[in-house]
Amino acid sequence: MTRLATARALAGCLFLSSCGTGADQPEAAAPADAAPASPEQALFLQKCGICHSQGGTGTMMLARRLGDEKSLLAEREDLTPEYIAAVVRHGLNSMPPITRVELTDAQLSDVSLYLTGKPLMLDAAAQTGAGAEGEEP
C-alpha cells in the first residue's frame, strides 16, 4: 500500500509541476549547441563566457556596480580595446589578472574585436599598465 501511495504522490507532483500558464516562466535561452556567429565570439565564450555571459559571476558583479545595462560585456558600446587589455592583464576588483599563457595577445586582440569592433594594436597590449585600477570607461 505504501508503494502505491508513493507512486500516486510522485505522479501528482509531476503533474502539478508541469501545470502553469507559461507567463511565469523565463524566456527560453538560445540552445547551448548554437554555433557562435564568429571565431572571435567563440573565443570570447570559451575564455571569458564562464564569468561574462548571462548569469555569470562577472556579469552579476558588473550589474551591482554599474547597473544591468552595463553588465553584459557583449552588449556594451563604451569599451575600448585598450581598456579591455588593461583590465584583462591587470585585473580589476574581483576579476583576477589573466596572463599571456591563459590568453595570448593575439587572442586578446580577437576578444577586443568581438567586444568593440576594433582589434587591439598588439604593441598597445604591452602598454596596458595605466588606467586599469578602479577606472570605469
Brief overview:
The chain has seven helices and no strands.
Question: What do you see in this structure?
Answer:
The protein has a domain at 39-116: Cytochrome Bc1 Complex, Chain D, domain 2 (Orthogonal Bundle), CATH 1.10.760. The termini are far apart. 48% of the residues lie in helices and 0% in strands. The protein is mostly helical. Mean pLDDT is 76; it is low at 9-31 and 129-134. The chain is globular.
What labels describe this entry?
mainly alpha; 137 residues
Helices, strands, pairings?
Layout: H1 2-18, H2 39-47, H3 49-52, H4 57-66, H5 81-90, H6 105-116, H7 122-125
The radius of gyration over CA amounts to 21 Å
Main pleated-sheet profile: none
**E-strand count:** 0
**H and E order:** HHHHHHH
Mean pLDDT rating: 76
| CATH topology description of the domain at 39-116 | Cytochrome Bc1 Complex, Chain D, domain 2
Head-to-tail CA distance between termini:
67 Å
Q: What is the tally of helical segments?
A: 7
**Poorly predicted ranges (pLDDT <50, ≥5 residues)?**
9-31, 129-134
Pfam family, one: Cytochrome_CBB3
InterPro entries: Cyt_c-like_dom, Cyt_c-like_dom_sf
Domain Cytochrome c: 35-119
Protein name: Cytochrome c
